[in-house]
Amino acid sequence: MKFPLSWLRDYLETDADAGAIADKLTDIGLEVEGIENPGAKLAGFTVAKILSADQHPNADRLHLCMVDDGSGTPLQVVCGAPNARAGIKVVLAKPGLKIPATGDVLKIGAIRGVESRGMMCSERELELSDEHNGIIELPDDAKIGAPAVEALHLSDAIIDINITPNRGDCCSVYGVARDLAAAGMGKLKAPAIEPIRGKFKSPKTVSLDFPVGKEAACPLFAGRFIRGVKNGPSPVIVQEQLKAIGMRPISALVDVSNLISHAFGRPLHVFDASKLKGNVSARLARDGEKLLALDGKAYALDAETIVIADEEKAQSIAGVMGGEETGCQSDTVDVFLESALFDPVLIARTGRKLGLLSDARYRFERGVDPAFVIPGIELATRLILEWCGGEPSELAIAGEAPMQDKTIAFSADIVKRFGGLDVAESEIVRILTALGFAVEGQGRLIVTPPSWRSDVEGEADLVEEVVRIYGLSQVPSVPMERPHAIARPVLTPAQKRVRLARRSIASRGYLETVSFSFIARKAAALFGGGDDTRQLANPIAADLDALRPTPLPSLLAAAMRNATRGANDFALFEIGAGFKSGVPGEQTSIAAGIRVGLGARCWTKDSHPADFFDVKADVLAVLESVQGSPMNAPMKPKASPWYHPGRSAVLALGKTVIAEFGELHPAILAAFDLKLPVAAFELYLDALPEAKHKAKSAFAPSPYQAVERDFAFVAETKVTVDDILRAVKNAERNLIESASLFDVYEGKGVPEGRKSLAISVRLQPKDKTLTDAEIEAVGQKIVAAVAKATGATLRA
Amino acid sequence: MSDCESLERQILDAVASAADDAALEQVRVAALGKKGSISELLKTLGGMTPDQRKENGPKFNGLRDRVTIAITERRSALAAAALDAKLAFERIDVTLPVRPESRGTIHPVSQVTDEIIAIFADLGFAVAEGPDVEFDDYNFTKLNTPPDHPARQMQDTFYVNPQADGASHVLRTQTSAVQVRTMLVQKPPIRIIAPGRTYRCDSDATHSPMFHQVEGLVVDESTHLGHLKWVLEEFSKAFFEIDHVELRARPSYFPFTEPSLEWDIRCDRSGGQIKFGVGEDWLEVFGSGMVNPKVLENCGIDPTKYQGYAFGGGIDRMAMLKYGIPDIRSFFESDLRWLKAYGFSALALPTLDGGL
User: Fold this and answer.
1) Which residue of B has its CA nearest to A361?
2) Is the peptide bond prior to B189 cis by the omega test (within 30 degrees of 0)?
3) Interface residue A500 vs chain B (CB under 8 A)
4) Most C-beta atoms within 10 A of its C-beta, which of A25, A155, A162, A773?
């Protein structure tokens, strides 16, 4: 909310300057977002008077003026404005000044052969408005030679504050003054608002027509008829106040409600009474009822919208915006004033539903002062009578303001307990009283908030009032107790897993990304998502409308963008949520990664396209760091459909899938417009079993010589290495320490449909050195076990 | 010169001039082989008188030993020379590049989150978590923000389509929802922080529809604004790694705290770089307040017995300030160049002892 300092001074007697006031505003919670000084760029421009304006000897459209700038010596100024004439007061720029609109520095010049020693300015040249039909004409009482900013009423600083939603009471210049006065910034000047004596009974009655149970929608409605007004411009000072806060003055009858709304936070409406048919009521709109509002748009209303209606139809969206048909015009003669109380919740709902922001809505939804309904209409009446003349009726009133019976029991020591601040009880009482609270008692105080503070509901609110006025800077810094002298670990096993996974994936060459949890529906559908219940109801963009089932599509989209920029060998990962539905808690933590590209070109010829074995190595290594030991879960071929069906695998413990990985399906790559090979993994971090902290047995290496023996088996192609290695290891569990594959061969020398697998077995005796015969016996056991399990035979 | 001496001279000359292993072997055979000159000489000892043997024995044996040593030494020298020659031939261009390997990185959001955790863990704050899709009740209502509350307009909320049961959930607009989840299951004393993703329907140069917040919550029987101030000051010093910070509190409004405060940090942005603790600028860093008693009550905690404070700040924003990253939107664009420029080493886990 913006207001000029001079307007504030109408209600606050203070010597403080704009800077001090701004600091105090921020201190008490009315955060200053900016101080504008519109007059700053007009320093040096002065008030002058045109003494004579003659025809320029060499140009039809130019005037040759003699101007009194207060120096005693008239200046010769050439001017092209049609309104330049003797006797008017103008804004004069003398040589050396910079003209705001052009940025040019004015020089003594010759215009069509005649010397000109200055320039008389239009509003556009001073960047005051777009007005450029002529030069500014200042009021007659402007003092010649005085700074133009004073005559233009621009010497004022304009303060822009941010009002938090709880401070409906500060949505007005008067409200801000009241808060500042309580904070010791000066004395509040409360306006004396006298009731206006009506000359006749209002020809229009007001009524509250609400169904039983909905009466709270509008508890109080005051109206007044004023006949015989003459609409015209409002006083210049009011116009300037409105302009200063960015409003366009329209006419006295319109400006009066804007003025009272901004000065006192009391929205009012002025109807052209001749356009209202019969009596006036506040009621809920009928379903399907329509209204053309003052913004020129037609709105469809519903039964939750409060309207002000005449006997025919709704004429105003109550508390939000008036109707176009009943608005005041220049020829309006009779007016009907409305001042009422509306339920903030209904006003907010209506405003939101209709997408209508207005000054009235802003104030009503934050809560207006229920005690100011009648003073507001009295003040409006007085101003209309002053500005437009006319004869007022008596007030027509329906309903009454709700009772103010809220008291809060407040023990003064709670300020210390909550705020950590020692404030004497007398000071607490002083602050609350200054803010308008009624305070009774001692120690255990009974506090009644003022009518304008509907936001104050309990002790905690009162603590806030006291500390914000007393000063938050006074709150001391108090060390918290350490729960343990030396900090204990705080991370849960799941949190440690995530951290280990993240850092071990990065250590394998992946760049970590963080991307939006929502993606395009089409992309989500490729990864098992994209259903209605995972759609956002109000996405920020059409291609960010689906909760992602896994981070993979985000990574692929990123890969595509980077590939477009020329990247052709990289690895990305992200740890984030995969959404199984749109229900809270139905999300899993997934570490997903992609290796992309043909491999960096290298003179050693070591590189290769991203493939299954890259990501298999990554998954196993990451699992080992996360679990603290190698993962023994069995590996099964064929992961989810977005993977290559023949080059992907699933790692599962029972039915719990821990990881899926492999080369991506070509159709997926095509969908992301990726021309590079991609191998990917998804690690389901929530599915991992908790790492076991078994007490480790002491390290006791065997003193006996280990023996390595190689075997070459010929097996059917469909037999897996895993099948053979398991058979090998099971052949003599006590002796076989490890078995590993070191070669695979298919082709010449091996029958069609078969392959040769070379396996190295390490035997580690624990209690004696093995004899040749014993080694031979184990070898035979191995061959027999492999043959039994897989049908493979020792290669001849 | 005796025969013996001249023989020695002759053999040693031959050893010295042997150009390779083969030539040296010839010399050795000629001297020490079965029929070699020294072997022959030694054989003559058998036919000598004891006196002659006494005189010639040491002489001949000495000759044999010296020649043997000379041959061994020469052999080593030849081997060394041969190795030198071979190694000289094996020289490579040491400026050739290494085999390709990529350097992974940790995203600034993760790194800063770990930094924040390290600091608060030292004060005994546990890390609490909640889901991204949240119940409206937890994100708003229990936090004292009923459906038509004007504060709901402060935050543009993303809604998920209605579910099968008709319920409509939100993408959490604030990590404060985790406060609710924590208090519903844990009795005081509570000390937690809750870092995580948050979402608002807002996108421009300074806003991203997804961003990260960290929430802090302390509930016990006596904690107050003074403790809150201390924690934020100590955190700021530790996080920005400076000895002095100045925080300024401003009264503000959040439905879930009362009193509510926002905290600005004193800084200097005049030189294009940001410096904390000096200057005339104030930069907003945290929202905070005493937990509204209604929130405690909504979460099943007796507000007449317990009280607490809560605070929150933007993780991305803290990362931007600490590491001079200009645009929040760039965090989520996954541009390789950006990830490499602002990412952290996998091994650079922040610790209080090693630095953050």
Assistant:
1) B150
2) yes
3) no
4) A25
